[in-house]
Amino acid sequence: MTTFAQAVLSGTAQGAIYALLALGFVIIYKATHVISFAQPALMVIGGLFSYHFSAVMGWPFWPSLFVAILLGAGLGMLIERLALRQMVGKSVFTMAVITIGVDVVLRVLANRYIGADSRVMRYPGGGERYEFLGLAISHRQLTILAVTLITVVSLALFFRYAKAGLAMRATALSQETALAQGVRVGAIFALAWAIAGGLAAIAGTFIATGSGGSEQDTWIIALKALPAIIIGGLDSLQGAVIGGLAVGIVEQLTAVYQSTYLPFLGTNFSLVAPYALMLVVLLIRPYGLFGTREVERV
Amino acid sequence: MTAAPQITNKVHTGSKRPRPPRGRPKLRTSYAQDMALLNTPAKRWSTLLLVVIGFCAPLLFTDDLLQVLTLGLFAAIGAIGLNLVSGYAGQVSLGHAFFMGLGAYTAAVLGGDSEGRLVGFGLPIYIWLPAAGLVAAAAGLLIGPLAVRLRGLYLAIVTLGVVFLGLHLFREANHLTGGPGVGRRAPDLEIFGINFSASGGIPGLDWTRDQQLLVVAIVFLIIFGVAARNIARSGVGRAFSSIRDRDVAAAVIGVDLTGHKVLAFGLSSFYAGAGGALYYTVVRIIEPTGFDLLLSVQFLAMVLIGGVATISGAIMGAIFITALGRIAIEIAHVVPFVSTSVAGGGLLNIFQLEGILYGLLIIGFLIAEPRGLYGIWIRIRNYWKGWPFSY
Q: Fewer C-beta within 10 Å: chain A N or C terminus?
C-alpha cells in the first residue's frame, strides 16, 4: 500500500509538469484551433533560459525562473507573429505543420547550446526530503506541486474575472462574434501563445532541475502532454490538468508495477504507457473525457 | 470498365483507343482521353526523356550522388504512400515511420539470414517484398478504424502515439530487430538470380553497387508510381478526395466513409512497408531507433514540400529532402561559417544546418507556395505555355 501511495505521490509531482505543458497546448488550441507542436522547443528553451541565468550568470533561482517565463512568453508571441498570424483562416493542419517546422528549427538551436553533456540546473532546495505518513517527498517535488497549484488557480481566476480572460473565452467561443464585439482577436492569439510560452518555460525549468537536466532528448518529455490533452479533451482546461496528472500517475505506477505483473511488455514500458492509455481512452470516448463533441454541418 | 470507351470505339474505327484528330493534339474527343495518364504530347515526351535520363544516370554521375538519388527514389515510394492517405484522403498521419519500420523488419526477418539470436528465413524477394507491404498494410488496417472515430488533429496525435509505441516494440523485439544501437542487416536485392546489392552483379557489365541499385530503384518507382496514379484517378481516388474536401458531404452522396478511410490507411501503409523494405536495402543496416517521430516528419515534409495530392510532387519532394544532407554539405563548402565536423567550430555544423533547412523549408513552402515544388513547376509551365502573354 505504501508503495502504491508513494508511486501516486511521485506521479502527481511529475504529472504537475505535464499539466502545465498540457494547459499551454489547450490554451493555444482554444484560442486559435491549432495544436502547437512547437511546445517541446519552447519548453527546452525556457529551461535553458533559466539555466543560463542561474548557472552561467549566477542569478538566484527564482529571479531566473521569472525572467525565463517572460522570455518564454516573448518567444511564444514572436512565433505566433512571424509564422502563424499570416496563416489565419488556413486549414488547421497547415498551421499545425508550420509549428512542427518552428519546433525543428528552435530545437536545433537549443541543442547547439546544450551540446554533448546534459545541462543540470542547481535547485536551491537541494536534495532535501520530507517524510510524511511513511511517504517521502522531495523539496523539489513539493515546489513543483505548489507552483503548479498557484499557476492553475491564477489562470482560472484570470479567465473568470479579468477583462482579457473574458475576451479570451469569447474568442474561444466564436472568433467572428468576438471580433464584432470589439475584441482584438489578433492580440488574443498573441496572448494565448505568450501564456503557453510562459507555462512551457516553468515546466522546462523544473525539468532542468531534475536528475537528468536538459539533454538533447529532453524535448520528448513535452510530447507526453499530448496524451494528457487527448485524455482530458482538447478544449477543456480542467481536462488538461486532470489528464496531465493522470499521465504522470499512470507512468509512475507502470514503472513500479509493470515489471512484476506484465513483464512481457518489456523494459521501460512506462515511458510509452501514456500513449497506450491515450489509445484506450480514445476508443471509449473519441473526444476525451471532458472534450466537447464537434457538431458537424454540411 | 465503363461503357463509354466502347461507344467511342465505334466512332473511331481502327484504333483501340480514340485518338485526338491529326494536328490537334490537345482536342479531346472522349472522357478517356482527358483522364489518360499522359494526356498531352508534352507529358509523353518529357516522361520518356526523364526515364531515359534516369536509366543513363548510372553512367553520368559519381557513386555518392547515385546513392543519394537511389535513396530518394525509394523514399519516394513511401512518400507516395503518405500522400495517398494525407494528401488525397486528407487523413493526417504522423505514424508513417512505424509502418516503414514494420516493412523494413518484415523484409529483414523473411529475407535475411539467421545469425546468432536473430531470426531469419532467407526467402527470395518475391516473398519478402510483398510480405513487407502486406504486414504494414495489416497494421494500417488496424489503425484505420481509429481514423473513422477520430478527426483531424486528434488523429494526428494518435498516430504520433503509434510511433512511440512502435519504437518501444522495435526496441524490445531484439531477436527480430537486433536491438537498439545494433540493428540488423537488410536483405540483398536479388531479382532473377542477379544480386544488385553486390558490385558487378549484372553479368557483362562491370557496374558498382550504386549504379545497379539506381536502375532497380527506377523500375520499382515506375511500378509503384503508375499504380498510385491509377488509384488516384479511379473511383477510389475520387472518393478519397471527396472525403478530404468535406467528409459529411461525401457521405451524403454515397461515399462509404469507413471503408475508404480504412482502405486509405491500408494502401498508404502498404506503400510505406514496401518503400521501407527497399530503402533499407540501400542503407544496409536497419536500426530500431531510426523509426522515430523525426522520420515521420521528414516524410510529411516530402509530401508538403513536393506537393500535396500529386504523385510527381511526392517524388520531387522525396528526392529533394533526401538530398538535403548533401545540399547542406555543398553549402558548407561555400559558406564560411558552417563547419563540416560534428565537433563544432564555426557557427553551425552541417547536421544543424540540415535541421534548420528542414524547418525553414516546411514553414516557407506552407506560407509562400502551399502547392510545393509541383506548384512551382506549374507556374513555370504556365509561363511558357502562355508566352509571350502573361495569361
A: N
ipTM of the complex: 0.86
- Least Cα distance to A282 among B295, B150, B222 occurs for B150
Q: Which three cell numbers stand for residue B168?
A: 518501444
pTM, to two decimals: 0.88
Greatest C-alpha distance within chain A: 60
Q: Which three three-digit cell numbers place residue A163?
A: 477583462
With CA atoms as reference, report the closest residue to B365 among B271, B301, B269: B301
> B388 preceded by cis ω (within 30°)?
yes
Indicate if the alpha-carbon torsion angle B338, B341, B344, B346 is positive or negative: negative
**Opening angle at CA B84, ends B78 and B89, nearest 5:** 150
Single-letter amino acid code for the residue at B105 = Y
Task: With CB atoms and an 8 Å threshold, state whether A105 touches B356.
Answer: yes
What pLDDT is stored for residue B309 in this prediction? 87
Cell of B260: 475508404
Amino acid identity of residue B127, one-letter, is: I
- Extended beta strands in B81-230, E state: 184-185, 190-191, 194-195
For residue B225, the surrounding DSSP H or E stretch is helix B209-233
pLDDT at B1 over 50: no
B160 lies within 8 A of chain A by CB: yes
Determine what percent of chain A falls in helix, strand and coil, rounding each to the nearest 5.
75, 5, 25
Domain residue limits, chain A: 2-284
Domain boundaries along the sequence of chain B: 41-290
Looking only at the bridges linking them, the beta strands covering A135-138 and B184-185 are unpaired
Per-residue model confidence as pLDDT tens digits over B175-218: 888 878 888 888 888 788 777 877 777 777 778 888 888 988 99
Distance from CA of A23 to the nearest CA of B (A): 16
Nearest-by-Cβ selection for A282 from B158, B172, B355: B158
* CA distances for A86 relative to A81, A83, B329, angstroms: 8, 7, 32
CATH 1.10.760 fits A2-284, yes or no: no
Spatial distance between the Cα atoms of B89 and B366, rounded to a whole number of angstroms: 19
Spell out the residues 6+ positions from residue A268 whose beta carbon is closer than 8 angstroms to its own: B168, B171
Helices A185-208 and A39-51: angle between axes, nearest 10 degrees: 60
Mode of pairing for the β-strands spanning B338-339 and B348-349: parallel
Model confidence at B9, in pLDDT bands (50, 70, 90)? very low
Strand B285-286 to strand B184-185: parallel, antiparallel, or no bridges (unpaired)? antiparallel
Q: How many angstroms separate the CA atoms of B166 and B273, rounded?
A: 14
Q: Which residues of A touch B246 (CB under 8 A)?
A: 298
Q: What is the pLDDT of residues B329-373, one digit of tens each?
A: 888 788 777 766 655 556 677 788 888 888 898 888 888 888 888
Residue partners of A215: CB distance under 8 A and separation at least 6: A114, A118, A119
Q: Which of A88, A100, A110, A107 is nearest to A190 (CA)?
A: A88
CB contact under 8 A, A278 and B160: no
Backbone angles phi, psi at B238, to 5 degrees: -70, -35
Determine contact: A230 vs chain B, CB below 8 A.
Answer: yes
